[in-house]
Write a structure and sequence with these properties.
The protein is an alpha+beta fold. Among the domains are: about 90 residues, Orthogonal Bundle (Endonuclease Iii, domain 2), CATH 1.10.1670.10; about 120 residues, Nucleoside Triphosphate Pyrophosphohydrolase, CATH 3.90.79.10. The protein is about 40% helix and about 10% strand. The strands form three sheets. Strands 2, 3, 4 and 9 form a four-stranded antiparallel β-sheet that branches. It has a three-stranded antiparallel β-sheet with strand order 5-1-6, sandwiched between helices. A hairpin with a 2-residue loop joins strand 7 and strand 8. Helix 6 crosses helix 9. The chain binds a DNA duplex (11 and 11 nucleotides) through helix 1, helix 4, helix 6, helix 7 and helix 9. It is an enzyme of class 3 (hydrolase).
Length: about 300
DNA sequence: GATGCGTGGGG
DNA sequence: TCCCCAAGCAT
């Protein structure tokens, strides 16, 4: 859960998770959709699938005990160099490094590394430095201290150098680069897309759609959507077409407040998706479903849609 | 090596 | 309001 995610964001999910799946056996036996549902809203949903797969592997291959050896941990889905090192050192006190974003930042400043910390080259260099410093038999507390140090003191912006016990040894501080380092050079920025969401009601059911098992928000359920920032996926044109059919449909953009307003009216019954007419005759399938309102809570919902189910 | 993959909080 | 970015991994 903590991979690329803040502790504050994880905490409530972790607490809830441990109540639902208190043991590896319980998680291994759980239904995949239920696992995804408990992860709903946390992001990076492949982590949930990987964790489920790995825990099943731990039960079937390792008798329910998570391996201590890094080489074995690395064979599990969703466990890479950092997580393998963290489990091996923190849980079993093996002499392994655990270089995460915090440790990269700390070493970049401490050693004045003026290179992109997102590169494999710097990651390798920092791992070597950490390996040299690693106190034999104390890797667990050492790694945790490094990580906590980065999370609490040597923070990304405005590091707390005044309280730092290492301020007299820090290359970045000595050269006045403590706010410039570490260097993070990313690629091109992510383009924005706009979608219209359709709320389509038929008696006491609502039309929903399951996303593909790979890619963005994989396997999550959502309300039907159409691009509304390009000519061939125009939400306004869609509304016009549908009203010409004598149908009552709502087409709104993905703004939570607007969708709450849409839900409050409860009078829609049909929709169009990707230019194809979808009617009450639409057969239920793995992908499309007319879902009774009371069953919403049982499914994993994509992004903002998950927060709307309470409105139904 | 570069890119896709979420979400929410803080400056 | 906008931008940055947070205990990475898979492809």
């Amino acid at each position: 859960m903590l991979q690329q995610t803040r502790v504050e964001a994880v905490r409530p999910y972790y607490e809830n998770w441990m109540e639902h799946f208190p043991t590896v056996e319980a998680l291994a036996a759980a239904d995949g959709d239920e696992v995804l549902r408990q992860w709903q809203g946390l992001g990076y949903y492949s982590r949930a699938r990987n964790l489920h797969d790995s825990v099943k592997e731990v039960v079937s291959r390792y008798g329910g005990r998570i391996p201590a050896e890094k080489s074995e941990l690395l064979t599990l889905k969703g466990i890479g160099d950092y997580t393998a090192g963290a489990i091996s050192s923190l849980a079993y006190n093996k002499d392994e490094t655990a270089v995460d974003g915090n440790v990269l930042r700390v070493f970049a400043r401490l050693y004045g590394i003026r290179e992109n910390i997102l590169s494999a080259k710097v990651k390798k260099k920092v791992t070597e430095l950490a390996r040299e410093q690693l106190p034999e038999g104390k890797a667990g507390v050492f790694n945790e201290a490094l990580i906590e140090f980065g999370a609490l003191l040597c923070i990304p912006k405005s590091p707390k150098c005044g309280e730092c016990p290492l301020r007299h040894f820090c290359e970045a501080k000595a050269t006045g680069l403590e706010k410039e380092l570490p260097l993070r050079i990313t690629g091109k920025d992510t383009p924005t897309e706009r979608y219209a969401v359709l709320i389509c009601r038929k008696s006491h059911t609502v039309l929903i759609h399951r996303r593909p098992s790979e890619g963005l928000l994989a396997s999550m359920w959502e309300f039907p959507m159409v691009r509304c920032d390009q000519p061939h996926g125009d939400g306004a044109g869609l509304r016009h077409y549908l009203s010409g059919q004598g149908l009552v449909v709502s087409v709104e953009e993905t703004v939570t407040a607007e969708l709450k307003h849409v839900f409050s009216h409860k009078k829609w019954d049909l929709a169009v998706y990707e230019g194809r007419y979808v009617s009450g005759e639409l057969a239920e399938s793995e992908v499309w479903r007319w879902l009774p309102v009371e069953k919403y809570a049982a499914l994993p919902w994509a992004g903002p849609h998950g927060k709307l189910t309470a409105c139904l």
